[in-house]
């Protein structure tokens, strides 16, 4: 009789490449795992029918577990009701990314509920995670999209986002991409003098009047890593508040090309003190008053995103979306504004784990290493800016396994190739599963092919316990296509 492992690998099928990529059509490989204590069975099917919109998620405060990945009484790590070890058996290869679709719905519900009573746009920051099925789910829930490149704009349109709920950010938007933005009808943030000039050129080239927001640096210290701080006076983003009048005078001179509809600020990322958002909002409303006094009809206040999460899994009491919105609610209502927020990390980070297999364990001098098949190529945050992400083993350790302090490293030929340092873990067996938590944001979207480590597949767990492939793993044939037709 074939083993469960053999059965899973033989039955897991991939989406039909002949299917259209229309936003309302889906093709997916589905693997269903029944409840524990039953014999493992696996089914595979391909769905091409138009899916109905996801059910509205329950309120985030209604007994929702703090994390969709949690340790069961049997000692195994679960994603919702599915053992991660079973997902490893079914996956096409390791490493891979594994998401909880219900957690995405719960995270959105927390923002939706917090914004009750306000006119608002939840603009999902596509840079955090640009997986197309993820984008489609968020669009179906009512999200807009925050974009920082022309291709992100094209992807958002492909995913079916309403352009009137999309914002095009960035400090180096090209004329070509601004023309696409003008044609599409999205909001565009003015980031600099030359950016304003290019927006005007794009408007003239397309014959469209562009709705714009001024991105103003409020010079508020977000108290985060300097690489993710964006709202201080030395940032490469936004305009200096001292130059506000110059921009207002310039905008007045282009009444047929642009319409100023709002102001925008973005302080940074991984922010854990919501008072910082209130401080920025107070400053921004002073600018709203100043701008309105000059005849502009401002409708929108965009306070950006940046809410942090519990990467350390210490049960730290961190601000929720409700805490964030409550700090600015009365300010927004007092000025009769529509609030735009730009969550990325807080919507998607904790929905996903990066799943690896242990290649082996070694020691050099006083340093112990767990070597896994994943690396900085698939998940660069720890190597790029020393980010901490919680790491644990998928299955209970072998009886008698000695606990030790390890660096978790990959096979890439760089000393910077690590996923975590100085982690206390039981010594794992070869082939054991190991996960890096909170990998939904700025992980796969920043993945590379360094050392020709081709980007991994992605899956999510549905509410019914099925596992659906939502991205193919790249193959060497995909890489070789970049050279088709070139001189030998």
Per CATH, the class of one domain reads: Alpha Beta
How many β-strand stretches? 22
User: How would you characterize the largest beta sheet?
Assistant: 10 strands, mixed
Structural class: alpha/beta
Computed Rg? 24 Å
Mean pLDDT across all amino acids: 86
Q: Between the first and last Cα atoms, what is the distance in angstroms?
A: 49 Å
What is the CATH architecture assignment of one domain? Alpha-Beta Barrel
Number of helices: 13
The CATH topology of one domain is given as TIM Barrel
- Per the principal axes of the C-alpha atoms, what is the gross shape? globular
- Relevant CATH superfamily of one domain: Alanine racemase
Give a structural overview:
This protein has 488 residues and is α/β, with parallel strands linked by helices. Among the domains are: 170-341, Alpha-Beta Barrel (TIM Barrel); 352-481, Lyase, Ornithine Decarboxylase, Chain A, domain 1 (Beta Barrel). It has helices at 4-11, 84-90, 101-114, 132-141, 150-158, 175-184, 193-206, 244-252, 275-292, 321-334, 345-348, 381-385, 476-480; strands spanning 30-32, 69-71, 77-79, 82-83, 96-100, 120-125, 144-147, 166-168, 187-190, 210-217, 239-240, 258-264, 300-302, 338-341, 352-364, 367-372, 391-393, 403-409, 418-426, 433-436, 458-461, 466-471. Strands 1, 5, 15, 16, 17, 18, 19, 20, 21 and 22 form a 10-stranded mixed beta sheet that branches. An 8-stranded parallel β-barrel has the order 6-7-8-9-10-12-13-14, surrounded by 5 helices. Strand 3 and strand 4 form a beta hairpin. Helix 6 crosses helix 7 (193-206) and helix 9 (275-292) runs parallel beside helix 10. The longest helix has 18 residues, at 275-292. The radius of gyration is 24 Å and the shape is globular. Residues 1-65 and 222-232 have low confidence and may be disordered.
